[in-house]
Amino acid sequence: MSEVFVLGVSHHTSPVALREKLAVDGKALGETAVQVAKAASLQEVLIVSTCNRVEVYGGKGDEAAVAAWLRERVGGDPIDDYVYVHRDADAVRHAFRVASSLDSMVVGEPQILGQVKEAYAEAKRAGSIGSLLDRCFTTAFSVAKKVRNETRIAEGSVSVSSIAGDLAKKIFDDLHGRRVLLIGAGEMGEAAAKHLQKSGATIHVVNRSFNKAQALAEEIGGNARRIETLSSELTAADVAICSTSAKRFVITTELMRGVVKARRRRPLFMIDIAVPRDVDPRVGDLDNLFLYDVDDLEQVAQENLGERRRAASAAEEIVAAEVLAFEKWRQAGALKPTIVGLRRRVRTVLAGELERTLPRLPDLSDKERRSLEKMLDAMTNKLVHRTISEMKANAGTPEGQALVETTRRLFDIPEERAEREPTGPAVLEPANARTKAS
Amino acid sequence: MTVVTTLMWLTVALYAVAAGLYVAFLAKGNEQGSRWSAWVLAAAVGSHLGFVATSWAIGGHPPTSDIHQALSLMSLILVAVFLVLARTRERLRVLGAFITPVTLLLFLGAAMRRGAGEQVPEGVRSALLPVHVGVNVLGLAAFAVAFAAGAAYVIQERQLRRKQLGGLFQRLPALDVLDQLGLRSVLIGFPLLTIGVVTGTMWIVQGSLGLSATQGFGLLAWLLFAGVLLLRVAAGWRGRKAAIGTMLGFLCTMLVLVGYVVRDSFGAGA
Fold this sequence. Notes:
The complex is a heterodimer. By secondary structure, chain A is of the alpha/beta class. Chain A has 15 helices and ten strands. Chain B is an all-alpha fold. Chain B is 80% helix and 0% strand. Chain B has helices at residues 3-28, 31-59, 67-88, 96-111, 128-162, 167-171, 175-206, 213-235, 240-266. The chains are: A alpha/beta, B mainly alpha.
C-alpha cells in the first residue's frame, strides 16, 4: 500500500484510441473521482483528463482496485502494457512534472497547468481529496509557476503560425493597420492569418473561387478579393500567406518582379505554407522581400523546441528540490501516529503505576498530587524524547522505517490510522468529522 | 596628473567599459552586464561633463573653440541623446553596441590634444565659429544615431534573408523601427549639417581658408546625406540601400574629422 500513487496513460505510453476510451469529461471529473474512491476504498482521489493523458491520483489505499476500474472502463481489455504506476515520491514528482509541462508533448506548453488546476478544483468541489493530495497539487501549482518564471522552458514559439507571427513582428514591429493577404484556403494558412489578426492586422482573402474567398473572409472577419486583383493586392500587402492546393507555382518570379517594383521598396514578408509550394523559391532573392516556406518555419520550431528541452534540465532540478521538501513534510506527517502512540503508551504505563501507589499515600494534599501528575508528564517527555528525535532525523530512510517499526513493536503501539486522518474513504465522512480529526 | 587629464582618462575608461558591456549584450545576450551598462554610461557622461567644465575653466576656451573640444562635445551630446532614447524606448537599448564605440573613438580623438584654439586660422576666428562648430556637432551626433540604426538594419536584414534567427536577431529591434529611426535621424541631422557646410563654404569663398581634402570629404558627406534624404523622401527609398547610404555618409564625415584631428595634432597644416 502506498501513501500516494498515480496510475495513468499518456501520449508517451498509449495510442489515442485508448486515451479516448478512458477520458473523463471535464464536468464529471469530481463525481467520477468520488466513484473511484468508493469503488477502490481510497481516502483521496483526483483525476486529470486531457487529450494527451488520463491519470488517477490516489491517496492512502491500494492501486490495484484503480487498475481494475480503468480496465473496466475499456471493456475489460488488457491495458496493463499502457498503464504506468508511480508511488510515493515518484508519484509526487510526476504530479509536479505534469503541472510544470515537463511531461507534455510540446514541452513548456501553457494549457496543461490550467487543465490540472481544473481537475483540482473539481476534486475539491466534489470532496474527493484530503490534505495529502490537496497539498500535493497546490505545491505542484507553485512549482509550475516557479519553473515558468525561472527557466526558459516556455520561451520561443513552437508552432508554425506563431513563428510566422513572431517574424512579422521582427519586420514590421507593430502589426496594427498592417495588411495581410491570405492566398488559398489551407488550414495552416488560416491559422497563421488568424494569429496575425490577433496582433491587429487586417486580412484580405484571395482564392481561385471567389465564393470560397467570401466564405473564408466571413469566417475570420476579413475582406474577400477576386483572384484577378492578385498583383495589386500583393502590392498593397505587408504580409502574404500562401496556402493553395495548386500543383504548380501560383506566385512566379515574373509576377513578383513587377510587384516589388510597384511596392517601391516597402518590405514584403511572404510565407509559403503550401505543400507543394506556391511560391517560386527564386522570389526570395528579390530585394526587400523575405520568403519563408514551411520547412524554414518548421526548422525554427524545432530549434525552439530544442531550446526548451535544454531548459527542461534546469526545470527538473527545481522539481527535484520541491519533491524533496514535499516528502519531508509527508514523512513528518507519517510519523505522527507513532509519536502519539508512543507518548500514550509511556504515559499510560506511568499513570498506571501511580494509580497503584496513590492508595498507599493517603496523606497527600491536592497540591502534592498535582505535582506528581506533573512529574509524570516530565518523565514521559524525557523517556520518549530521544526516540522521537531519532525517528524524525531518519525519516524517509530505511533505517528510519526500521526504527519506527521497532518502536511500534517494543512499545506495542497498535495501527491507529484514525490518529492522523479520518478512517475509510474521505468522501464518506461528513465534513465536520473530518475537520475535527485533522 | 592634473584634474583635467585624470578626468579625461577616467572618461575614456568608463566609455570603454560601457562599450564592452553593450557589445557583450548584443553579441551574447549577457543580461547581467546589460543591467549595469546604462549606469556605467551615465557615470561616463558625468565624468565627461566634469572634463569639459574643468578644461573650459582652466583653459579659458569654450568647448566650441577647436576641433578636439568640438569632438568631445559631439560625443557627449551623442551619448546623452542615446541615453534618453534608450530610456524611452527599451528596444533601442541594444543600439548602444554601435553608439558607444563611436563615442569612444570620438572622445579618443578629442583626447589627442596639443594645445587649444591655436590652429584655427586668423580669418576664420569670428563669432560665427561657435555656430559653425555647434551645428556640425549636433548634426553629426544625429548622423551617428542614423549610422547605428543603419548598421543594425543591415545586420538584421541579412539575418532575416539568411534565415539565421538566433539570439542576435532576437535582441535587435524590428526592421521597420530601425528604418524609421534612420530616417528621422537624417531628417534632424541634415538641416544642421547644411548650416555647417554653408558657414564653412563661406570662409572658403572669402578666401580665408583653402579647399583641401578634408573639406572635400565634408562636402561629399553632405552630398551623400542629401542624396539619401532626397531618395527617401521623394522616391520612397528605404531599407538596406538607404541604410548603406547613411552609413557611407557618416563614414565620410568621420574622415573629415580624422583629417582635422591629424592636422591639428601633428601640425600638418590645413
